[in-house]
Amino acid sequence: DAKTTQPPSMDCAEGRAANLPCNHSTISGNEYVYWYRQIHSQGPQYIIHGLKNNETNEMASLIITEDRKSSTLILPHATLRDTAVYYCIVRVRSGGSNYKLTFGKGTLLTVNP
Amino acid sequence: GAGVSQSPSNKVTEKGKDVELRCDPISGHTALYWYRQRLGQGLEFLIYFQGNSAPDKSGLPSDRFSAERTGESVSTLTIQRTQQEDSAVYLCASRDQGLAQNNEQFFGPGTRLTVL
Questions:
Q1: Rounded to 5°, angle at Cα A47 from A42 and A51
Q2: Tell me, what's the pLDDT at B91?
Q3: What is the mean pLDDT of each run of 10 residues along chain B (116 residues)?
């Protein structure tokens, strides 16, 4: 799986958009970008994933650059409950144990009142 | 419906003792994973179960670690002769293998293991 680089921490004001960057310059053509988050003392939670097109769901939007070497997770209206560590992962969508996840240290997003 | 549950939520044990951690996956999820997360670190894969296939044990750090799964339900992770380095949060996740277009894993709350 391709390596990702994320800033260790970010701050955001409550109600504002949080934009979390991720660099994945060695991503392969068949690798997807996944985002998970982990709120303190809880298990990781899936947020969103994409291949090359921008994606949006009820939690967030994912913007992937045209060359696919970087992406941005956008939380449009951050709340205090969005304070968590956010993990960006790139991986193939093959079967079996290749679905296993490997997280780095992620970005600690702190949403301030 | 119920999510993934794990028990106990916290376990404190003495070095050298054996511990058993339990995971109840979401009903109907055929794939089950165990991970370990040390304090301030990312996620380490331990083992993967899928139906009746042989499990992928490639992430188990030593032969003191083992895991079993009964059919497509409960799984137990056993650590024998625990060491202080085993202290971590042990996370279980399950996934519906039948959803070919969905790679989402649902995680339990984890078991925090402290080895004194």
A1: 145
A2: 96
A3: 89 97 92 91 88 88 94 93 97 79 80 97
d(CA B1, CA B93): 16
In angstroms, rounded to a whole number, what is the distance separating the alpha carbons of residues B74 and B113?
19
Name residue B26's amino acid. I
Q: Which residues of A touch B (CB under 8 A)?
A: 32, 34, 41-46, 49, 87, 93, 95-97, 99-106
Please determine, for residue A96, whether its predicted confidence score (pLDDT) is greater than 60. Answer: no
Per-residue model confidence (pLDDT) at position B103: 62
Provide the b/e sequence for A45-58 (b: ≥16 CB within 10 Å). Answer: bbbbbbeeeebeee
Residue A70, C-beta contacts closer than 8 angstroms, at least 6 positions apart: A21, A22, A23, A24, A25, A64
d(CA B75, CA A17): 40
Q: Specify which residues A33 forms β-bridges with.
A: A50, A90
CB pairs under 8 A between A and B: 63
Per the prediction, chain A carries an average pLDDT of 89
Residue B50: closest CA among B71, B24, B19:
B71
